[in-house]
Design a protein that fits this description.
alpha+beta; Structural Genomics Hypothetical 15.5 Kd Protein In mrcA-pckA Intergenic Region, Chain A; three-stranded antiparallel beta sheet; 7 helices; 12 strands; 26% helix; globular; disordered N terminus; binds zinc ion
């Protein structure tokens, strides 16, 4: 369903202008650099969150741009991600140093990263109690995140830049993709409103095609009908939407 042709863009929380996914973080950085000139001393990070790219799957239009305070813990980020994109039934989750980073072919990067990894468990898990400032220690560091080790939603967090000031809150949502506006797989014309969590080829439907699908797909009629929501966990397990930033859900 992610091949549906769409564009991904987000609004800047600071000035309200809209930017494409590819340029929003460059723009957000200019606001944070400006704020860094007169904010109170501390450390904070511009972090982009995207879906992890897996073999055979490209990037998706979903993104979050977060301004995170260094004093926040990984647990705070975990809670935020659950609240905006993920929580369905209290599954386990974990942060890990990106595999890509652990096998980096740049020798100095490799040495630095392997030293850095010594503070993590053997499998690279980062403790939830760790402060963000002790994890995001270098620019461009990538952290993998997984929610639910069964029907997993895999994300990747990248520290795009570091600023010598406190963030306004532990985590400030400074942009996210606007609702995607998926089209119905069946008619290709109407806006999709429902997902069938069982079917694979044709799985998102407008209201009209959803009622037709309910006649052909018993599971959909019974329990597999899920709402279209603004999250990479749409249609997965019992996910029906977030609890923060609901107006863009
Ligand atoms: Zn702006
Ligand atoms: Zn679940
Ligand atoms: Zn339709
Ligand atoms: Zn179905």
């Amino acid at each position: 369903m992610l091949e549906n042709p769409t564009k991904s863009e987000g609004k800047c929380l600071f000035c309200g202008k809209t930017f494409a996914k590819a340029s929003i973080n460059r723009h957000l950085k200019t606001h944070l650099e400006e704020k860094a000139g007169n904010g109170s001393a501390g450390v904070s990070y511009l972090v982009k969150v995207e879906t992890a790219q897996r073999r055979g799957y490209g990037s998706t239009p979903y993104f979050l741009s977060l301004w995170i305070d260094g004093e926040a813990t990984m647990k705070t980020i975990d809670k935020f991600l659950r609240d905006i994109w993920l929580e369905c039934c209290g599954h386990l989750s974990a942060f890990r140093v990106s595999m890509k980073q652990r096998s980096m072919n740049n020798p100095m990067q490799f040495i630095r990263n392997s030293m850095y990894n010594m503070s993590f468990d053997n499998d690279g898990d980062i403790a939830m109690s760790k402060k963000v400032k002790s994890v995001f220690r270098s620019k461009d560091l990538k952290i993998d995140y997984e929610y639910d080790f069964g029907s997993t939603t895999a994300l990747q967090l990248t520290a795009i830049d570091i600023f010598p000031i406190k963030a306004d809150k532990k985590i400030v949502l400074i942009s996210r993709n606007e609702p995607i506006g998926w089209l119905c797989d069946k008619c290709g014309k109407e806006k999709a409103t429902q997902v069938c969590s069982i079917c694979e080829d044709e799985s998102i439907f407008c209201d009209k095609c959803a009622s037709k699908h309910a006649e052909e797909c018993e599971d959909f009629a019974d329990y597999a009908s899920m709402p279209v929501v603004n999250s990479p966990r749409m249609g997965v397990c019992g996910y029906v939407g977030g609890v923060i930033d609901k107006e863009r859900d």
